[in-house]
Structures are given as C-alpha cells and as structure tokens.
Amino acid sequence: MLNFAICDDEPVMVKEILEQLSEYMSERNRTPYKVKSFLSGRSLLESSCNFDVIFLDIQMEQPDGMETARRLRKQKNDSLLIFVTVLREYVFDAFEVEAYDYLVKPLDGRRFRRTMDRALRTLAQRTANSIVIRRGNSCEVILLSRIVYCEVQGRKIYIHQNDGTITDYYDNLERFEHRVDGRFFKCHRSYLVNLDYVCGCSSGQIALSQGSVIPVSRLRERDLTQALLHHMKERDF
Question: Which fold would CATH assign to domain 2-127?
C-alpha cells in the first residue's frame, strides 16, 4: 500500500493533482494506494500518517510549503517531497530540505509521469530495506531507517519509529535481530537500537536524537562505542 499526501491551499489544484495521480496509478502501476489531502501546512504537520510521497505547494499561509518541509525534516520525516508551485525561483531552496522533485504549475502531464516513474523506483528500492510485521490477518511494512529502537515487554516487541509511532506484535528479540541489518545494536537484553539515532552514552543510558533515553548494559557499553565508530566509518563510505 502506497500512501500519498497532497498539500495545497487551492482546492482546484488539489483536485488536479489527484486526477493526474489517479490516472497515472491506473495506467502504469497496480499497487494499492491511498491519498489524503490537506489545505494547509499546519494540518499536514499535525497528521500522524506516514506518507511515501508528499505533493507540497510552496506559496501558502504560514507555515508555507518550504517551512512545512523544514519542520517535516526536523521530525525525521523521510517522505519523498515533490514541490508543486508557480514559484520557479525557489528551486534552489528545495535542495535544503532534500526535495525529490519540483513541478511547476500548471502541471505538465508528461513531466508528472516522469517524476512518478522515478519516485516509484525509489520507493521500490526503499522497500527492499524494510521488514514486514504480521498481526493476525493484517501486515505492516516498516522501513528500517524509520526504526529508532525496539524493546521487549513480556511476549511482545514494541517498535519505536522516528515519527513517534509505536508498533507492537508478538515475537522475540533474537528473531527480530536476525531480520534487521548492521545498523542495529543489542544494547540490553530487552533493547535493540538503531545506531543512526544514537547521540551519546553515559551512566548506563543511551541518548537518542529524538530526546529519549534507553538503557545499555554495563557489559555492553564498550561494545557500543566500538559499534558506533565502525558504523560511522561505514556510513562515510
């Protein structure tokens, strides 16, 4: 399931993007998808949904599209941001917030389809770096890059994501550890942490970039330091 968001304060423009997206998905991609529309940056920021792609207008009431994008990135949101605007002069500012593409109004159908072709290829590559969590008859795909840490309570694993979402399901930490990659470190018998989010460690506590802390076993503190150094070197390459 792909999740799209359209954020534009002009209902007519929201409708146009939705029509182009619907036409594209029906013709070129059979993947199930959902679309949610927002008429302001504030309402988008207040949404608790994870979106794969966000179509974002720049010229809106405060927070405008660029400020909305900045705040999304501060929240560690890694959606593909596609600016849709009449303001060509902002194209270089879009790099600051790691925008995926920049579409100029009025929309050109061919350009829109080329952008979507690229976006879906990128999303397919991301999905390869994810895990599928099954709960009963439902399942959820979670990107490894979004997982801050996991903890075990009783017979359940609780997956804490960078947007504050917590997903729980029945499993054990050892089996979960085998499903993730080298960025994850078992810092405690009940905790597995993503090294990308570690800010520091002292007095038996790991500080995370979201502001929270989790425990680290005394016997694992030295191993954590070595794992962080190795991870930083690998990431630089």
Answer: Rossmann fold (3.40.50)
